[in-house]
Amino acid sequence: MSWTWILLATAACFALKLAGLLVPESALDRPAVARVAGVVPVALLAALITTQTFVHQQQLAVDERAVGLAVAGVAVWLRAPFLVVVVTGAAATAGLRWLDLAG
Amino acid sequence: MVQEQDQLPRKEKARLVRDALGVGLAVGAYGLSYGALAVSSGLSVGQTQFLSLLLYGGSAQLALVGTLAAGGGGAAASATATLLGVRSLFYGVSLRPVLDARPRLLLPAAHLLSDESTAMAIAKQTPSASRFAYWVTGSVVFLFWNLTTLVGALAGSLLADPKVLGLDVASSAAFLALVAPRLRERDGRFVFVLAGLVAVAVSPFVGSGLPVVIAGLTALSVLLLPTVRPRQQDGRNPNDEVPEGGLADRVPADGLGAGDSAAGRGGAS
Fold it and tell me: Is B181 part of any domain?
């Protein structure tokens, strides 16, 4: 990959970060805008979670990742500490993959 | 007006630092796989590290590398990364009233903006806690991400398949833990489910990276929901809860553990 594209992507991503922080305060005075802006991270994190978990090569796929996420979900439900959530989720998936290989 | 509280209790600061280290460790695990994946997709170690230092967006970088690995060209990879970066525009908007960055701090504040620093900041109940959480999480995550990128890139082929360790799921699990406090609110729950479904539903039809951006638009759907009536604040002064500029979603949906962060659940709450 050429440095040109790397520099362009870097510049674009930084510009987006900066622009978000520079949005005039008046734009936030409207309750509707504040309400939408507040849930945008929730929407994007949800989308990242489901696409990373249930999509494989652009197709719906329910596999070991789904089990790992479910285990992580239970850990969240039980109010486990952050690291426990991450490690149990990853370990469940890794374990299933290992059994798959072993079997 | 919100009373400006520059002093957070030492105990609270210690808790936020501990939370940030927990997030940093989780991110570090993913940084390792990013470094390894990036090198195996054809980037040089220098390019891999450059992206972590200056583009600094975990999912944007991983999407870039994923596009390259799937055979996409530089233009497609760059465009995908930028599309994933679009959400930082919205993160910035939701952080704007919380962060209140002075001009001198604007550039570093923008640079440290990430899923993690945003999630940790917006989960906090007071502006001062949000600010502290933002800076400490942002710095710790930046450090861990870059160190582990380097280690991962150098380890190269040894870690080329992060799936064996389930590291691809570690990221989803981390995002789930981070978003969890927001699922106690009706708006958050609704958008979470809708966005998650939409992202998967459009995945077969649009290029990698786009489903996340399209799903971001579902945030607009909260306007269709009736406004939540303000609840009793359990004896707390409601003015302490809502920062200037009022993010409506920051009002806790219930009194039980509303002060919890995803990473602080082990704490005394």
Answer: no
How many residue pairs from chains A and B have C-beta atoms closer than 8 A?
Answer: 332
> Counting beta carbons within 10 angstroms of the beta carbon of residue B232, is it exposed (0 to 12), middle (13 to 18) or buried (19 or more)?
exposed
| Closest Cβ–Cβ partner in B227, B246, B263 for A82 | B263
Could you tell me if the ipTM is greater than 0.90? no
Domain with B153, as residue range(s), is 9-164
Closest Cβ opposite residue A43 in set B64, B177, B219? B219
The alpha carbon of residue A22 is apart from the nearest alpha carbon of chain B, in Å, by 8
Closest-approach residue (CA) in chain A for B42: A1
Distance of CA B230 to the CA centre of its chain: 27
Nearest-10 Cα torsion for B227, B232, B234, B236 = 80
CB-CB neighbors (< 8 A) of A102 in chain B: none
CA distance B216 to chain A (A): 5
- Return d(Cα B178, Cα B184) in angstroms, integer: 12
* Shortest distance, CA A11 to any CA of chain B (angstroms): 7
> What tens digit of pLDDT does each residue of B44-102 get?
999 999 999 999 998 788 778 877 766 667 877 787 788 778 778 878 888 887 887 67
CB A47 within 8 A of CB B195: yes
Q: Is residue B138 part of a domain?
A: yes
Residue B186 lies in a domain: no
CA distance B266 to B199: 32
- Would the CB atoms of A79 and B99 count as touching at under 8 Å? no
Test B90 with A41 for CB contact under 8 angstroms. yes
pLDDT in tens, B150-196: 998 998 756 556 677 777 787 788 779 878 888 999 999 999 999 99
A65–B169 C-beta distance less than 8 A? yes
Distance (Å, rounded) from C-alpha A84 to C-alpha B23? 11
Helices (H) and strands (E) counted in chain A, each on its own, are: 4, 2
Number of domains in chain B: 1
CB B169 within 8 A of CB A66: no
Q: Please state the domain extents for chain A.
A: 30-102
Residue B87 resides in a domain: yes
